[in-house]
Amino acid sequence: MKIRAFAKINLMLDIFGKTEDGYHSLFMIMQSIGIYDDVTIELHGKPDEIFLSCSNPALPTNESNIAYKAAKAFFSYWNNSEKINPGIKIHIEKNIPFAAGLAGGSADAAAVIFGLNKILNANLDLEELCNIGVKVGADVPFCLKGGTMVAQDIGQVLAPLPPIKDTYIVLVKPDQNVSTKAAYDAFDNATDIRHCDTNGIIHALANRQDYFGYVQNVFEQFIEVPDRVDIKAIMRRYGAKATCMSGSGPSVYGLFDSEIKARACANELEKKYRNTFCTTPVDKSLTIK
To answer: What torsion do the CA atoms of 206, 184, 16, 227 make, to the nearest 10 degrees?
Structure first.
C-alpha cells in the first residue's frame, strides 16, 4: 500500500504556559498543505521485523525514526488483542523538508499507523489510531485527520474548521535549522509576551471571513530565523496577504489570493532558496495512491 502523507503549516501558534507534567499548553490553527511524502508499506514474511528505508540518507532508519516508533506503537496496541507483527517493510520517499516546522515526520508516522490498520485489516477506528499516534508525537493525531483544525493542549485536542478556499501558499525552508528545544526555552525565559488573537481567527475562519490579519506565530517574538525578514519582504512585495513562520521554524510561508502572484513570488525565491514550494491547502492529510 502506498500512502501520500501531507505536510502542515500553522496559521496560528500560541503558547499559554506549561501543564503540570511539564509540557507546553498550545493553541494552534493547523492546515494541511499539498507538499507530501509517499510512504509505502508491505508485508514481507519475517515475523516481528520492522524494516525501514528512506530516500533521504540524512534521516535515520532505526528506532529513532518516528515512523519506526509509530509501527512499534501500532503493534503494541494491536498485540493486546493477541495479534502479532507479521513482518513489514516501510519505505519513505521524502519530499517534505525535515526539521522544518512542517510535521513531516509526524505525517510519515500517521501514514504508517493508517496504512497498517488498512493492510492488516485491524479495523481500528480513527480515535483509536489517534490514541496510538499521540504516544509517538503530538502532531500525529492532526496528521491522521488533516484539513483545517484547531489544536490545543499538546496538540492532541482537535476540532475541525471550515476548509480555507482560493488560497495559494509560497513556502521557503532556509538551509539553517532551528532547535525546537531552544525555541521553547526562549519562550520560558521571555518576560514580555504578546499573545495571539485566538478568538479573532476562530471567528473569522468559522464564518468564512478574511482571516489573514490574524495569522501569527508567537515563536517569532523569541527566536531568530536566518533570512526570515528578507523572505517575508519578498513575499509582501509580490502581494502576500499574510506571512508567517510555521511551527518553531525555520520555514516561512506567504498566503496569496492569486496563483499568478504566488508563482511569480516562488520563481523569485527559488533563485536563492532551494527548498521553495508553491502549493495550496488540502482538506485531507492522507490519501491512498
So the answer is: -40
Fold of 168-279: Alpha-Beta Plaits (3.30.70)
Q: Which residues of 230-252 are buried (b: 16+ CB within 10 A; e: fewer)?
A: ebbebbeebebbbbbbbbbbbbb
Of 8, 69, 94, 241, the catalytic one is: 8
Farthest-apart Cα atoms in the chain, separation: 60
- What CATH class has 2-161? alpha beta
3-class SS of residue 231? helix
Give yes or no: 166 in active site: no
Per residue in 82-111, pLDDT tens? 677 889 999 999 999 998 999 999 999 999
Label residue 81 by pLDDT band (50, 70, 90). low
Q: Which of 37, 139, 173, 241 is catalytic?
A: 139
Domain spans in the chain, listed from the N-terminal domain onward:
2-161, 168-279
Q: What is the pTM of this model?
A: 0.95
Cβ 10 vs Cβ 246: under 8 Å: yes
Residue-wise pLDDT tens digits, 228-256: 999 999 999 999 999 999 998 899 999 99
